[in-house]
Each structure stands twice: as C-alpha cells, then as structure tokens.
Design goal:
Structural class: mainly alpha
Largest sheet: none
Protein name: Cytochrome c oxidase subunit 3
CATH class of the largest domain: Mainly Alpha
Strand content: under 5%
Distance between the termini: 61 Å
Membrane topology: Multi-pass membrane protein
InterPro entries: Cyt_c/ubiquinol_Oxase_su3 (IPR024791), Cyt_c_oxase_su3_dom (IPR033945), Cyt_c_oxidase-like_su3 (IPR000298), Cyt_c_oxidase_su3-like_sf (IPR035973), Cyt_c_oxidase_su3_a-hlx (IPR013833)
Helix content: over 70%
Main location: membrane
GO molecular function, one term: cytochrome-c oxidase activity
Number of strands: 0
Number of helices: 10
C-alpha cells in the first residue's frame, strides 16, 4: 500500500479516474459497501475553488492578471466536476463494470444529501437572521426607516412575483419527473426535467434583469449588502441546481435510471425543492415585507 500511494502521488494526475477504477475491478467484493478508490478530482476541485475565490478577491482589488486566473479557475472547476460526475454516473449504472451503488450505498447517499441540505438551511437561517436583526435595529441606525432613506426597494409585484411562479412550476415538473421514473416512464422523466431546466434558466435570466434595474447596489448601506448576499446566494443555488438537473437529464436520456435505481435524481430533486422553499421565504419575508 505504501508503494502504491507513492506511485499514485507521482502519476495520479496523469491518469483518468476510469483507469484507476479498472485497477480494482478484478477484486471480488464480499460486502455491500462502496470503498472509494483514489481519485484526482476532489484534489483538483478543491484547488479550483480556492483559485476561484482568490481570483475574485484579487479582481475586487483591481489586480491586472485576475481575469486570467478567474478563467483558469473556472476551467479547472468545470473539468473536475464533469470528470467527477462521469465517474459517479458509471458507478451508479448497473450496466457498467464499475457499478457500486448497492441498496446500502444508496441509503447512505440519501442520508448524506439530507445532511448537506440541512447545512444549507443553516446558511440561509444566518442570512435571514442578519436581515431581520438589521431591520429591527433600523429605528436607531436609519432614522426608523427600513429600507434606509434614499433606497427604493424592488417592487415585489414585478420580477420577484414572476420568479415565484417560475420556480413553483419548475417544482411541479420536477415532482412529475420523480413520479415518472418510479413508474419507469423514462421519456416523460427526461421531458419534465428539460421543462424544469428551462424554467430554472428563466429564473436566472429574470433575476439578472432585476439586478440590472435595481436602484441600489451592494455598497448602498447594510440593506444593499444583506439583500444582495441573500438573493445572490439563493441565485447561485438555483444555478447549481440547474446543473444538477442537466446531469440527471443526460443520464435519463442515456437510460441509466431505473425505477429502483435513481438516487442521483432523488438528490437533485430534493435540492431543487429546497431551492423552491427558500425562494418562497425570500419572497414573502424580504421582497413582499419591505
């Protein structure tokens, strides 16, 4: 094992993860668990995210080469995600020689996704807490006004209301896709996922218009800061959820889902419904309340 670890440290980044997996497929399994093989993708993804954060900070301080670093980081993250998702797709496909998603593994994956969503809920609770704390203390810091004087809030009856309808309808299509895959109607699943993806992209486009038309910016008092932090963080989750649904649509198109083996789709739909619920809280507690 020591010799293998040293060899992997030298040539690991040069190998595709499928080659790494192939070195283990001849080993017979006597258990229902998935013992992960060494892979370069978590390492590359972590460094890609680090460089992405670093490059954006440098961009804020007008570093001349920051755009090149941002492009490098985006390419590195994209490469890592595509390759990692490819490997997970192979591991979840019963027709592949790398199949490892036994019922016990699927149960563990569902539990892991549930814990991950719980941590995301805590993130948003922190953001809502900050917003409400600032609004309650507005009587002292902003002459009793929230939003502060000079800031015109976004009309909740325009883009935010349309975005609410968009995400609700996307959630309906996502639910239908889950029902369809459980009945083994894969074509209906793919169609409903496509509809949910289009609506998700429409949400992102409408939110971009909302930001472009807003009469205040990120630097306009604490209201602007916490407003863009909360809505922008949710918008980022919508983007990630859309990518998640695209991956599931491609897997469905290739018929890798079955009625009893679609834990990846279930995870994507849980995440998408979580995004829907958070948006309802944002709409009624932030947009509509101000």
């Amino acid at each position: 094992m020591y010799i293998y670890n040293n060899i992997f440290n030298v040539i690991g980044p040069l190998l595709t993860s499928s080659q790494i997996v192939k070195s283990f497929i001849n080993t017979k399994k006597y258990h229902d668990f998935h013992l992960l093989n060494q892979s370069p993708w978590p390492f590359l993804a972590a460094y890609g995210v680090f460089f992405l954060i670093l490059s954006n900070v440098l961009y804020m301080f007008f570093f001349t080469k920051s755009k090149i670093l941002i492009l490098f980081a985006v390419v590195l993250v994209a490469l890592s995600l595509v390759s990692w998702w490819r490997d997970v797709t192979r591991e979840s496909n019963p027709a592949e020689e790398f199949y490892n998603h036994t019922p016990k593994v699927q149960s563990g994956l569902r539990s892991g996704m549930a814990y991950f969503i719980f941590t995301e809920v805590m993130f948003f609770i922190g953001f809502f807490w900050a917003f409400f704390t600032l609004s309650i203390n507005a009587s002292v810091e902003f002459d009793g006004m929230w939003p502060p004087r000079g800031i015109t809030p976004i009309d909740a009856q325009k883009e935010p209301l349309w975005n609410t309808y968009i995400l609700l309808f996307s959630g309906v299509f996502a639910t239908i896709s889950h029902i369809a895959v459980r009945l083994n109607f894969i074509k209906i699943t793919v169609f409903c996922l496509l509809a949910a993806i289009i609506l998700g992209l429409g949400f992102s486009w409408a939110q971009g218009l909302e930001y472009a038309e807003a009469a205040f910016s990120l630097s306009d008092s604490s209201f602007g800061s916490v407003f863009y932090l909360l809505t922008g963080f949710h918008g980022f989750h919508v983007f990630i959820g859309t990518l998640f649904l695209i991956v599931c649509m491609v897997k469905g198109w290739n018929f890798t889902f079955t009625s009893n083996n679609h834990v990846g789709l279930e995870s994507a739909l849980w995440y998408w419904h979580f995004v829907d619920i958070v948006w309802l809280a944002v709409f009624f507690l932030v947009y509509y309340n101000i």
